[in-house]
């Protein structure tokens, strides 16, 4: 960027040429001069600069105004009246200042949110922080994409009436329900309602796809990972997952990524395909069974110790595992062979194939992996 004297000289030369190209360059130089001298500005100086930049910008095409908006969107001393006008412009111009400018007040944002369309609402929804009066307007006027955006914004505050309205709209919108479940500031009654509705939708998805899973396991997954459950997880076909597994495209890193993100339904789905065990048994191993069962399941798939650890850490609440037990299990995991873990799984699959009562499956899931390993043991066990 040039110094102030150089900018002034160029401005004098450019101001005599009325061509569009030169007027655009003039706007750049005036903006440069504003930046260079902003520390010495009086309030009146800021107004004068703003008036000049505004007059030139609105003589030019939309691209010039969008460029100006991008340049001043993070300048705290940018002229308020100029930023306000840019924020009400077409979305290509408004987007940078709506998303990032700290010059805009709540009053400005509320006025724009009430008068402009969904693209402006979505841009406002991306601001680092939003007050409850602003989100009240967004929740009232926003459509699904906007509502999901603002709900996912951790810096957004909501009034109780705004939360209630979001919860009401989420009854008809799975994406919004999923986003709402991620918030940590929901009142207890709203969170319980969200969890219940998430559970209902997942059970409905599973029933449609004829996935025979114990409802109590779904409830456990909801309770443990409601904040990150993906309702679309069950839309991926088992056939597609099996094909990916056969082609070695379904690897443990994918499972670790889902575990670290708290998407436990995805973890259960993939472990079931890789191991050939019923999803109910997988969810018991993951959430309820002795830690040995989870270790055998991981070792049978030749998972690294870091993968086993990532899955251990998905437990919380009453099922949280003590640090000393984790350290011991990690040592013993290294001593367990893939061969012996697979022998245990084969033994268990035979047991499962001879079980005809559906309600017996959860009990097998809770105990049989580590029991079978004890029966077949020929080396140090977890």
Which consecutive residue ranges, at least 5 long each, have pLDDT under 50?
Answer: 224-237, 355-382
Described by strand count, sense and barrel closure, the largest sheet is:
none
Individual helix count: 23
SS-derived structural category = mainly alpha
How many beta-strand runs?
Answer: 0
Radius of gyration equals 29 Å
Give average pLDDT, whole number. 77
Helix share, percent: 55-70%
Number of domains: 2
> What is the element string, with H for helices and E for strands?
HHHHHHHHHHHHHHHHHHHHHHH
General shape: elongated
Distance between the termini: 66 Å
Which band does the percent of strand residues land in? under 5%
Task: Walk me through what this model shows.
The chain is mainly α. The chain has two domains: 104 residues; 172 residues, no CATH class. The chain has 23 helices and no strands. Helix 6 packs parallel to helix 8 and helix 20 runs antiparallel to helix 21. The radius of gyration is 29 Å and the shape is elongated. The C terminus is likely disordered.
